[in-house]
Structure formats: structure tokens, C-alpha cells
Design goal:
It contains 5 helices and 6 strands, in the order βαβαβαββαβα. The protein has 179 residues and is of the alpha/beta class. Helix 4 (130-139) links the parallel strand 5 and strand 6.
Length: 179
């Protein structure tokens, strides 16, 4: 199985939990030409190119805008070898803190991506209230795991390799493997 890491706007710093997991678990990091002014259509094309070049079963591990990327991709494409998506701290595209430089990312609707997903949310994320995260999970047909007051679950959260998240990922993967 290959992990596909989808970072948010600005990319993830070397000590961000997502970068740590990438170093420890391996997999593919989806790169973008413009990390600071993301356009959904460009990022979806980048993800599609990586998926086409990555054979075998895959699991998406996304943070922040990377979560919205996974969902935008799934609205337009299919890859039966994607087993599921682990979506951490998805921002609310309609929220007051959503980056104005991010273009084309849409709020959750009734067009559920056709793959199992787990949304991981913090109770004090400045980019998405807990009710917004709950609506996103419901709109995407995903499970929701609330992890307490961890902000945006990023470097500023001071969680290092985020063992709580690794345990959530392990439980999510175990459920994917059980028919």
C-alpha cells in the first residue's frame, strides 16, 4: 500500500506531523507548482498525475486544503485502488479564515466522494469550527473523529509526530481491511 500525502496551502514544514509521517511511512508527496495561490483545477491535475503514476492500493493522508483537494479530485475522477482518505483539519471554504488566495475549492455538498473517509477535527480550529467539520464529514459520507483542542492540527499545535493521529490512522486502516 502506498500513502499519498496531500499538504495544504504553503506546504507542510519539515517538523509538521504530516512530513514526519511521510519520512517514517514512505509513500508519495503530491507537489504543486504554486503552494501559495492554489487553484483547485491545478491541484486536482497534480494529484491525478501522481495517482496515474502510482500503481497498487493507496491511502490518502491529507491536511487542511489537501483534504479539499482529495474531495475535489474524487468529484471528477475514480481510482478503484484508493482504499480511503484520512482527512485532517479540513478548512471551511465559507469560513471567515479561509485563505482568499485559494480558488475553486467548494464546500461539502450532497456529492459524496465514493470512498471511505475519516475526518479528523479539532474543537478550536481557526479554519473550521467543529460544526463546520461535522457538516463536512456528513456531506462527504465520512466518519468524524474529534481530537480536542489542537488548533489547526499543525506545527503550531506542538504535537510533534502526533501519536494520537497515528493511532487514529491505524484504526482507520484496520476498518478498511475488514470487509
Amino acid at each position: 500500500m502506498t500513502y499519498l500525502f496531500l499538504a495544504g496551502i504553503g506546504n507542510s514544514e519539515a517538523e509538521h506531523w504530516q512530513a514526519i509521517w511521510h519520512r517514517e511511512l514512505g509513500g508519495r508527496w503530491v507537489e504543486h507548482a504554486d503552494w501559495d495561490r492554489p487553484r483547485a483545477s491545478d491541484w486536482v491535475a497534480d494529484l491525478e498525475a501522481v495517482l496515474r503514476a502510482t500503481p497498487g492500493p493507496k491511502v490518502i493522508v491529507a491536511h487542511s486544503l489537501g483534504c479539499l483537494l482529495a474531495v475535489e479530485w474524487a468529484k471528477q475522477h475514480r481510482d478503484p485502488q484508493i482504499l480511503g482518505s484520512f482527512l485532517v483539519a479540513p478548512p471551511d471554504p465559507c469560513g471567515p479564515c479561509f485563505p482568499p488566495a485559494a480558488a475553486g475549492f467548494t464546500p461539502p455538498g450532497d456529492d459524496q466522494p465514493p470512498l471511505p473517509a475519516l475526518v479528523v477535527a479539532s474543537s478550536n480550529d481557526p479554519y473550521a469550527s467543529l460544526p463546520a467539520a461535522q457538516r463536512a464529514a456528513a456531506g462527504w459520507g465520512a466518519e468524524l473523529a474529534e481530537v480536542g483542542a489542537l488548533g489547526h492540527i499543525n506545527l503550531a499545535s506542538k504535537i510533534g509526530g502526533w501519536e494520537q493521529g497515528r493511532a487514529l490512522l491505524a484504526r482507520f486502516l484496520a476498518r478498511l481491511e475488514t470487509p
